[in-house]
Amino acid sequence: MNWLSLFLSALHLVPGVVAGIENIHGSAKSGADKKTLALQSLGLASGAAAAAAPQDATIINAATSAVGEVIDSTVDLFNAVGWPHQAAPTPAPPTPAKS
Q: Are 16 and 49 spatial neighbours (Cβ–Cβ below 8 Å)?
């Protein structure tokens, strides 16, 4: 399996996954729980991946650790700039059509 290609393709998904999990769970879950959800969303839950490909367990653990660091850095950046924690604007209700 081309693990480097999979790893690199997962990296560009991290900001969207982190923002989505934060929008869905907010303060209802701990940071560690949200990080686990992000890793699972990216298909890098090391236990499940290692069980599926035990010969690649070392590579899977290294990739999971690296993406975990990227997730932590993404959260730090989001916290520093205040995004995506800002409330999204509420859309205006539709107005009835005039006949």
A: no
At 74-84, the pLDDT tens digits run 889 888 888 75
- The answer to whether residues 21 and 34 touch, using CB atoms and an 8 Å cutoff, is yes
| C-beta separation of 21 from 41 below 8 A | yes
Find the distance separating the first CA and the last CA of the chain, reported in whole Å. Answer: 62
pLDDT digits (tens, 9 = 90+) for 8-39: 777 888 888 888 888 888 877 888 889 888 88
Q: Which two tokens stand for residue 10?
A: 């997962």
**Helices 31-41 + 57-81 axis angle, to 10:** 120
Domain boundaries, the chain: 1-25+57-88
